[in-house]
Amino acid sequence: MSTVSVKHHQMFIDGKDVDAPQAFEIRSPATEELVCTIAKGSVEHADAAVESARRAFESGVWSRKPKEERAAIMKRIADRFGEELEELIELETMANGATVRQATGFHCGLAAPHMLYFAEQAESYEFERAIPTKAYPTHSVNTIIREPVGVCAAIVPWNFPLVLGLWKIGPALAAGNSIVVKPDEKTPLSLLRAAQIAYEEGVPAGVFNIVTGDGAEVGARLASHPDVDKVAFTGSTAIGREIMRLASGTVKKVSLELGGKGGVVMMPDADLSYSIDGALFGCMLYSGQICESGTRLFVHKDKYDEVVAKLVERASTIKLGDPTDYDTDMGPVVSARQRDRILGYLDQAKADGATFALGGGAPEGPEFEKGYWIAPTIITNVTNDMQIAREEIFGPVLVVIPYDSIDHAVELVNDSEYGLTAGVWSTDYEAASELAARLRAGTVWINNWHMVDPSLPFGGYKQSGVGRELGPDALNEYTEAKHVHLDLAGRHDRLPFDLLISTPLPE
Ligand code: NAD
């Protein structure tokens, strides 16, 4: 297809559209058709964006704007996300292949409420707190002030570009920072639109910039840039380690949301009338390309065969197809690379002796000849030490492993280098809560999954990350705490200077 007929998108730097000599092609994951081109930014563009962000920050045009005004602008941005939901869905799904149903409820539907939460935080966050002090050694007034860190960089993946971007942009703006965002090269469209909307609603030029470019070039430059104060990243654990290393050169603040291998315990008393669909929902939503998915299902040995049979029966009804059709349950995976990566994991699982109770490769049919497809896959005869049970597959792939006792289930769930999410299916709420307390993960869902709420913290134990996004403390990651001490003693003999100079000044 000729590139003449498709739209070209530029970057957004210093309040302006900025083009680059080279371009990326964005192809539909469902059809492989060219849908648009994007400016391919370079290190120079990253530097220009950081310079603009720094200038805006130092000018005080946003960083010293009264918090009520920042909040009002952010609320208007949230409204626009609601008003332009359909356009955002189209921009997001043409590049990442999410079904329109998922994008409405999740990928883009969450944008407005999440932005609204941060708009409210801009007003309600405790930017200043007076601490009562004793009059010893001297009488003083002490204040803790939370100030914006300065210039933030956000490096965002392709699975939920808009929402995962807003988890960084929202608190950064609420606290008064400037930000440079680097979306994944495959999926920058919804974030580019978000930056334009923000500018139109009154976020000053330079405060919110988008640079599109390769991770290893533009992303790495932002993570190591001497004038970036904080870097926030969501993506693979391997690149997360690299971001940490790059940021260490100038001791930047770092927050990382990385991989997961969510362990789920189906207790013997689980109500299968909803837990079976729940386990599939937890693992296979958006073709399993979610870091917080529940991908290892541990089932009591007495219930194992029944649960596997029901999982296969229900997963067989998941309808793959055109993601723009509201009746489609599951779309493609994001790229040929991602599909091949998943197929590689499935080959290895087979070689390791696992059995495919369902799926195990690409679906068959003429409609799947183009695009990047993986059929819902359920794997049995698998142990927790196999690669398929240890590494993040990022596909619609569920491993089902039997356990003997609750202690055994806890051991299996916690035997992972990851600790992002875990879950329990049970009708005994007390037992489920006791079990939840023993699972080493940042979020534990009991009898549900994917319940991400902007007012509740999200992040990982172990190698799933550093720091927390969302929740009442989200702005802590985007502010520095400053202690200001105002001494009220006002008399030499009451001040502790005699620790150094024992005789006061003669009168
Ligand atoms: P990735 O970690 O390579 O990419 C995430 C982001 O990091 C993208 O914006 C990318 O451009 C950028 N990036 C890549 N290399 C970089 C570097 N050297 N310096 C700075 N930034 C860099 O993820 P991927 O390759 O797209 O996917 C691979 C696997 O990662 C997936 O199969 C999945 O297991 C995992 N993943 C996890 C998440 C998540 O939400 N935690 C998201 C996407 C991918």
Automatic annotation (TrEMBL):
Keyword terms: Oxidoreductase
InterPro entries with a match to the protein in the record: Ald_DH/histidinol_DH, Ald_DH_C, Ald_DH_N, Aldehyde_DH_dom
Aldehyde dehydrogenase domain span: 22-484
Classification via Pfam families: Aldedh (PF00171)
Residue intervals passing through the bilayer: none
Lineage: Bacteria, Bacillati, Actinomycetota, Thermoleophilia, Solirubrobacterales
Protein name: Aldehyde dehydrogenase family protein
Signal sequence coordinates: none
